[in-house]
């Protein structure tokens, strides 16, 4: 985990970030956290509508997430590393895999290497360990 030495610049004239720059940088950072099984870019950068002052929206899926010191260390570490490397405000969300289908409402762009190729996930059927899921996660 790196330490943020310079504050993230907000509201200043920042150079444009490309979607591929974000995906490459985020992927190299996220893969250093083994508890994260997948991550997706969403929001304006995923849609191609980002402005230079847009924040970067990323959702992480952590299957064994337990609230406590370890989870704060992982999420905080990822956030600090991403904001430092990208020099942007990062809106980081964490979603347990059981809620994946509920979260997939739009096109998201995979970041983490286990996610596969970019595609529209909003119409895909997800499978849980035993039940077919269509639209809502099983409880």
From TrEMBL:
Top-rank taxon of the source lineage equals Eukaryota
Alphabetized InterPro entries for the sequence: NT_sf, Polbeta
According to UniProt, the name of this protein is Polymerase beta nucleotidyltransferase domain-containing protein
Region: Disordered; residue ranges are 119-139
Which Pfam family, giving just one, matches this sequence? Polbeta
Return the SUPFAM superfamilies for the record.
Answer: Nucleotidyltransferase (SSF81301)
Question: What sequence ranges are listed for the domain Polymerase beta nucleotidyltransferase?
Answer: 27-65
| CDD domains found in the cross-reference section | NT_KNTase_like
Taxonomic lineage per UniProt?
Eukaryota, Fungi, Dikarya, Basidiomycota, Agaricomycotina
